[in-house]
Amino acid sequence: MDDHTLARRLADAARDLLLRLRTDRTDLHGADLGREGDRLAHGQLAAALAHHRPDDTVLSEEGGPVPTDRRTGRLWIVDPLDGTREYCDRSRGDWAVHVALADGGTLVAGAVALSSGHTHATDAPTPLPPPAHRARPRVVVSRSHRPALVDALADVLDVDLVPLGSAGVKTAAVCTGDADAYVHAGGQYEWDSAAPVAVAAAAGAHTSRIDGSPLVYATPDSGIPDLLVCRPELASTLLTALATARTRP
């Protein structure tokens, strides 16, 4: 199967495993549930990639470090469970599985499997819906690691800030039209955003750093300092507002 189909199938399978674990292991609670979910989903993804793409390299949140010289080719970037805090709370659904492929630092395939059962993927991207024409753009932001920049943005531009869990869930909200933008600053890792950025770009969304520069993956430290995912018609307005917000004391 091609890389796009594989990304979707692996993300779906890991999501389904996590749903079963959450339902069946009633003896696991809180952090113990999250640790077991991370462990099992990582093991399944790593084994499947070793089988289907034995010559490729895997960078996973739950895996070991990847030498720099192994990052220059085909690198699968996976987050077996994005939104672990939300997963640990059985009343919440804002968590996801991320599977992406970068080649030479550029994202070429990806899938975000949501807990709802829906998956956004590059094999069959759904174009962004028409603009909602809200009076105030809806901007989704981190629920547990809310950066000061988003509050500064709200001082500069009249926006609604909506906290959510997983980066995949926040990006999916932009793809479905439930939100207009996703802004993050203060640091993430590549596995947090690779798959979400891949599927958002495939759907026609704007994706960049908050200064408008391109997002580059397969970096030596696996870090992504900040990002903006938004409807393309809002990109210029948001980038200008973010530039002003960054100068605020």
Description:
The protein has 249 residues and is α/β, with parallel strands linked by helices. The chain contains seven helices and ten strands. It comes from Saccharothrix yanglingensis. It is an enzyme of class 3 (hydrolase). This is inositol-phosphate phosphatase. InterPro entries: CysQ/Inositol_MonoPase, Inositol_monophosphatase-like, Inositol_monophosphatase_CS.
Short description:
It catalyses: a myo-inositol phosphate + H2O = myo-inositol + phosphate. Helices cover 38% and strands 25% of the residues.
- Computed over alpha carbons, the radius of gyration is 17 Å
Strand order in space, largest sheet:
1-2-3-4-5
The fraction of residues assigned to DSSP E strands is: 25-35%
Shape category: globular
Number of strands: 10
Low-confidence stretches: none
Let me know the largest β-sheet: 5 strands, mixed
Mean pLDDT: 94
How many helix segments? 7
Helicity range = 25-40%
Give the N-to-C terminal Cα separation.
51 Å
- Derived structural class: alpha/beta
Secondary structure elements and pairings:
Layout: H1 3-24, H2 30-52, E1 57-60, E2 74-82, H3 84-88, E3 96-103, E4 106-114, E5 119-121, E6 138-142, H4 148-156, E7 160-164, H5 167-176, E8 181-189, H6 190-203, E9 206-208, E10 223-230, H7 235-246
Parallel strand pairs: 1-2, 6-7, 6-8
Antiparallel strand pairs: 2-3, 3-4, 4-5, 8-10, 9-10
Helix pairs in contact: 1-2, 4-7, 5-6
